[in-house]
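agent> step 3/5: call structure_predict on target 'CN hydrolase domain-containing protein' (Fistulifera solaris).
agent> reason: downstream docking stage needs a structural representation; sequence fetched in step 2, passing through unchanged.
tool.input:
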Amino acid sequence: MSTIAVAQLCSTSSKLDNLLNIAKCAHQARQHNCVMLFLPECFGYMGISAEETLANAEPPIDLIATNAQALSQALVSMVDGNDIDNETLQTIDNHPISLLDGLQQIARHSQLWISAGGMHVRSSNDTKVYNTHLILNHQGELQCHYRKIHLFDVHIPVLLVPSAFTVPTGSAHWHILLRARAIEQQCYVIAAAQYGQHNTKRCSYGHSLVINPWGEVLVDAGGVDRPLTEPPSIVTCDIDLSQIQSVRERMPISVHRKKAKWI
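tool.output (status=ok):
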Protein backbone atom coordinates (compact mmCIF):
# COMPACT_ATOMS: atom_id res chain seq x y z
CA MET A 1 0.00 0.00 0.00
CA SER A 2 1.41 3.38 -1.02
CA THR A 3 0.08 6.88 -0.30
CA ILE A 4 0.09 9.34 -3.18
CA ALA A 5 -0.73 13.05 -3.38
CA VAL A 6 -2.80 14.62 -6.16
CA ALA A 7 -2.24 18.37 -6.53
CA GLN A 8 -4.92 20.88 -7.45
CA LEU A 9 -3.45 24.13 -8.77
CA CYS A 10 -4.55 27.42 -10.27
CA SER A 11 -1.53 28.16 -12.45
CA THR A 12 -0.85 31.64 -13.78
CA SER A 13 1.59 33.21 -16.23
CA SER A 14 4.24 33.39 -13.47
CA LYS A 15 6.52 30.35 -13.58
CA LEU A 16 8.02 31.35 -10.25
CA ASP A 17 4.66 31.51 -8.47
CA ASN A 18 3.66 28.19 -10.00
CA LEU A 19 6.86 26.46 -8.85
CA LEU A 20 6.48 27.89 -5.35
CA ASN A 21 2.93 26.54 -5.20
CA ILE A 22 4.18 23.12 -6.29
CA ALA A 23 6.78 23.30 -3.53
CA LYS A 24 3.95 24.02 -1.05
CA CYS A 25 2.12 20.92 -2.30
CA ALA A 26 5.32 18.89 -1.92
CA HIS A 27 5.58 20.10 1.68
CA GLN A 28 2.01 18.95 2.35
CA ALA A 29 2.65 15.62 0.61
CA ARG A 30 5.76 15.01 2.69
CA GLN A 31 3.78 15.67 5.89
CA HIS A 32 1.38 12.90 4.83
CA ASN A 33 4.26 10.48 4.07
CA CYS A 34 3.35 10.32 0.40
CA VAL A 35 5.67 8.64 -2.10
CA MET A 36 4.56 10.47 -5.24
CA LEU A 37 3.05 13.84 -6.17
CA PHE A 38 0.85 14.14 -9.26
CA LEU A 39 0.61 17.55 -10.96
CA PRO A 40 -2.07 18.69 -13.43
CA GLU A 41 -1.69 19.78 -17.01
CA CYS A 42 -0.18 23.25 -17.53
CA PHE A 43 1.34 23.11 -14.04
CA GLY A 44 4.13 25.51 -14.95
CA TYR A 45 2.38 28.10 -17.08
CA MET A 46 -1.16 29.10 -18.03
CA GLY A 47 -1.04 31.69 -20.79
CA ILE A 48 -3.79 33.94 -22.05
CA SER A 49 -3.15 33.13 -25.73
CA ALA A 50 -1.40 30.57 -27.94
CA GLU A 51 1.21 33.18 -28.86
CA GLU A 52 2.01 33.89 -25.22
CA THR A 53 2.24 30.19 -24.43
CA LEU A 54 4.68 29.61 -27.30
CA ALA A 55 6.81 32.58 -26.26
CA ASN A 56 7.11 31.24 -22.70
CA ALA A 57 7.47 27.54 -23.52
CA GLU A 58 10.55 25.69 -22.32
CA PRO A 59 13.43 25.27 -24.79
CA PRO A 60 13.70 21.79 -26.32
CA ILE A 61 17.25 21.00 -25.19
CA ASP A 62 18.86 23.34 -22.67
CA LEU A 63 16.57 23.59 -19.65
CA ILE A 64 19.10 24.97 -17.18
CA ALA A 65 18.12 28.29 -15.59
CA THR A 66 20.61 31.16 -15.31
CA ASN A 67 19.57 31.74 -11.70
CA ALA A 68 19.30 28.09 -10.72
CA GLN A 69 21.03 28.53 -7.34
CA ALA A 70 18.71 31.26 -6.07
CA LEU A 71 15.65 29.40 -7.35
CA SER A 72 16.90 26.20 -5.73
CA GLN A 73 17.25 27.84 -2.33
CA ALA A 74 13.75 29.35 -2.55
CA LEU A 75 12.12 26.05 -3.50
CA VAL A 76 13.94 24.17 -0.75
CA SER A 77 12.67 26.73 1.75
CA MET A 78 9.08 26.30 0.52
CA VAL A 79 9.29 22.50 0.65
CA ASP A 80 10.40 22.90 4.27
CA GLY A 81 7.28 24.99 4.94
CA ASN A 82 8.98 28.41 5.12
CA ASP A 83 8.07 31.69 3.40
CA ILE A 84 10.26 33.65 0.96
CA ASP A 85 10.95 37.37 1.32
CA ASN A 86 9.85 39.68 -1.51
CA GLU A 87 13.39 40.83 -2.34
CA THR A 88 14.49 37.26 -3.04
CA LEU A 89 11.40 36.61 -5.16
CA GLN A 90 12.05 39.76 -7.20
CA THR A 91 15.66 38.75 -7.82
CA ILE A 92 14.64 35.31 -9.06
CA ASP A 93 11.77 36.59 -11.17
CA ASN A 94 14.08 38.97 -13.06
CA HIS A 95 15.89 36.04 -14.69
CA PRO A 96 14.80 33.11 -16.89
CA ILE A 97 13.29 30.25 -14.90
CA SER A 98 13.57 26.59 -15.87
CA LEU A 99 10.57 24.51 -14.86
CA LEU A 100 12.49 21.25 -15.14
CA ASP A 101 15.32 22.53 -12.96
CA GLY A 102 12.79 23.68 -10.38
CA LEU A 103 10.92 20.37 -10.39
CA GLN A 104 14.15 18.43 -10.00
CA GLN A 105 15.06 20.48 -6.95
CA ILE A 106 11.62 19.95 -5.41
CA ALA A 107 11.79 16.19 -6.03
CA ARG A 108 15.29 15.90 -4.56
CA HIS A 109 14.55 17.86 -1.42
CA SER A 110 11.12 16.39 -0.74
CA GLN A 111 12.21 12.85 -1.71
CA LEU A 112 9.03 12.55 -3.78
CA TRP A 113 8.54 11.04 -7.18
CA ILE A 114 6.76 13.64 -9.34
CA SER A 115 4.38 13.17 -12.23
CA ALA A 116 4.58 16.52 -14.02
CA GLY A 117 1.31 16.52 -15.91
CA GLY A 118 2.06 18.68 -18.92
CA MET A 119 4.90 21.10 -19.59
CA HIS A 120 4.96 23.35 -22.65
CA VAL A 121 8.11 22.56 -24.64
CA ARG A 122 8.96 24.33 -27.88
CA SER A 123 9.56 22.31 -31.03
CA SER A 124 13.00 22.43 -32.63
CA ASN A 125 11.81 25.02 -35.17
CA ASP A 126 10.19 27.17 -32.44
CA THR A 127 6.78 27.16 -34.15
CA LYS A 128 4.85 24.58 -32.10
CA VAL A 129 4.44 23.56 -28.48
CA TYR A 130 4.61 19.97 -27.28
CA ASN A 131 2.43 19.15 -24.27
CA THR A 132 5.06 17.04 -22.52
CA HIS A 133 4.49 14.79 -19.51
CA LEU A 134 7.53 14.19 -17.28
CA ILE A 135 8.24 11.59 -14.60
CA LEU A 136 10.97 12.40 -12.07
CA ASN A 137 12.23 10.08 -9.36
CA HIS A 138 12.86 11.04 -5.73
CA GLN A 139 16.42 12.07 -6.61
CA GLY A 140 15.20 14.54 -9.21
CA GLU A 141 16.31 12.39 -12.13
CA LEU A 142 14.18 12.49 -15.27
CA GLN A 143 12.93 8.94 -15.81
CA CYS A 144 10.92 9.47 -18.95
CA HIS A 145 8.94 12.03 -20.89
CA TYR A 146 5.87 11.61 -23.05
CA ARG A 147 4.49 13.92 -25.71
CA LYS A 148 0.73 13.70 -25.79
CA ILE A 149 0.09 12.20 -29.19
CA HIS A 150 -1.07 8.63 -28.57
CA LEU A 151 -3.15 6.99 -25.83
CA PHE A 152 -1.49 5.16 -22.97
CA ASP A 153 -1.15 1.37 -23.18
CA VAL A 154 -4.37 -0.21 -21.93
CA HIS A 155 -2.56 -2.87 -19.89
CA ILE A 156 -0.88 -0.58 -17.39
CA PRO A 157 -2.27 -0.52 -13.82
CA VAL A 158 -2.65 3.25 -13.54
CA LEU A 159 -3.91 5.82 -16.02
CA LEU A 160 -2.67 9.38 -15.47
CA VAL A 161 -4.98 12.15 -16.66
CA PRO A 162 -3.38 15.50 -15.83
CA SER A 163 -5.94 18.07 -16.88
CA ALA A 164 -6.91 21.67 -17.42
CA PHE A 165 -10.60 21.19 -18.29
CA THR A 166 -12.76 24.22 -18.90
CA VAL A 167 -15.87 24.64 -16.74
CA PRO A 168 -18.50 23.78 -19.43
CA THR A 169 -16.78 20.57 -20.56
CA GLY A 170 -15.71 19.64 -17.05
CA SER A 171 -19.14 19.93 -15.48
CA ALA A 172 -20.67 17.87 -18.30
CA HIS A 173 -18.06 15.17 -18.87
CA TRP A 174 -15.20 15.08 -16.34
CA HIS A 175 -16.45 12.59 -13.74
CA ILE A 176 -18.30 10.46 -16.29
CA LEU A 177 -15.35 10.06 -18.65
CA LEU A 178 -12.83 9.25 -15.93
CA ARG A 179 -15.03 6.71 -14.16
CA ALA A 180 -15.72 5.08 -17.52
CA ARG A 181 -11.99 4.83 -18.27
CA ALA A 182 -11.34 3.22 -14.88
CA ILE A 183 -14.13 0.68 -15.37
CA GLU A 184 -13.38 -0.30 -18.96
CA GLN A 185 -9.61 -0.56 -18.42
CA GLN A 186 -9.97 -2.00 -14.90
CA CYS A 187 -7.25 0.22 -13.50
CA TYR A 188 -6.73 3.21 -11.23
CA VAL A 189 -7.22 6.67 -12.71
CA ILE A 190 -5.25 9.53 -11.14
CA ALA A 191 -6.35 12.92 -12.45
CA ALA A 192 -4.60 16.04 -11.16
CA ALA A 193 -6.52 19.11 -12.29
CA GLN A 194 -6.21 22.85 -12.66
CA TYR A 195 -8.82 24.79 -10.69
CA GLY A 196 -9.94 28.40 -10.59
CA GLN A 197 -9.57 31.71 -12.44
CA HIS A 198 -6.12 31.83 -14.07
CA ASN A 199 -6.57 35.13 -15.91
CA THR A 200 -9.31 37.25 -17.47
CA LYS A 201 -10.00 34.67 -20.16
CA ARG A 202 -9.50 31.32 -18.48
CA CYS A 203 -11.18 29.42 -15.65
CA SER A 204 -10.58 25.70 -15.00
CA TYR A 205 -13.08 23.21 -13.58
CA GLY A 206 -10.96 21.49 -10.91
CA HIS A 207 -12.04 18.22 -9.25
CA SER A 208 -8.73 16.39 -8.99
CA LEU A 209 -9.73 12.74 -8.63
CA VAL A 210 -8.49 9.27 -7.77
CA ILE A 211 -10.75 6.48 -9.03
CA ASN A 212 -10.31 2.77 -8.32
CA PRO A 213 -10.63 -0.09 -10.87
CA TRP A 214 -14.29 -0.56 -9.92
CA GLY A 215 -15.05 3.02 -10.94
CA GLU A 216 -15.46 4.37 -7.42
CA VAL A 217 -14.22 7.89 -6.69
CA LEU A 218 -11.81 7.57 -3.76
CA VAL A 219 -10.96 11.25 -3.41
CA ASP A 220 -12.29 14.44 -5.00
CA ALA A 221 -10.59 17.79 -4.37
CA GLY A 222 -13.68 19.79 -5.34
CA GLY A 223 -14.07 22.43 -8.02
CA VAL A 224 -15.92 25.54 -9.14
CA ASP A 225 -19.32 23.94 -8.52
CA ARG A 226 -18.33 22.48 -5.14
CA PRO A 227 -15.37 24.30 -3.59
CA LEU A 228 -13.54 22.35 -0.90
CA THR A 229 -10.05 23.84 -0.84
CA GLU A 230 -8.24 26.76 -2.43
CA PRO A 231 -5.27 25.98 -4.70
CA PRO A 232 -2.48 25.17 -4.28
CA SER A 233 -3.65 22.12 -2.36
CA ILE A 234 -3.39 18.35 -2.41
CA VAL A 235 -5.59 15.37 -1.68
CA THR A 236 -4.00 12.08 -0.65
CA CYS A 237 -5.04 8.52 -1.30
CA ASP A 238 -3.76 5.00 -0.62
CA ILE A 239 -3.29 2.95 -3.80
CA ASP A 240 -3.65 -0.83 -3.46
CA LEU A 241 -2.43 -2.39 -6.71
CA SER A 242 -3.65 -5.83 -5.62
CA GLN A 243 -7.22 -4.57 -6.13
CA ILE A 244 -6.56 -4.40 -9.87
CA GLN A 245 -5.95 -8.13 -10.11
CA SER A 246 -8.95 -8.83 -7.90
CA VAL A 247 -11.27 -6.81 -10.16
CA ARG A 248 -9.85 -8.37 -13.32
CA GLU A 249 -10.33 -11.86 -11.92
CA ARG A 250 -13.94 -11.17 -10.94
CA MET A 251 -14.70 -9.62 -14.32
CA PRO A 252 -12.19 -10.97 -16.89
CA ILE A 253 -13.20 -8.73 -19.78
CA SER A 254 -9.74 -8.86 -21.40
CA VAL A 255 -10.10 -12.63 -21.83
CA HIS A 256 -13.35 -12.13 -23.73
CA ARG A 257 -11.93 -9.67 -26.22
CA LYS A 258 -11.69 -10.91 -29.78
CA LYS A 259 -9.48 -9.60 -32.51
CA ALA A 260 -11.54 -7.97 -35.23
CA LYS A 261 -10.70 -7.12 -38.80
CA TRP A 262 -11.27 -3.49 -39.64
CA ILE A 263 -12.28 -2.60 -43.16
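agent> step 4/5: record observation. Residues 61-66 have pLDDT under 50 and may be disordered.
agent> proceeding.
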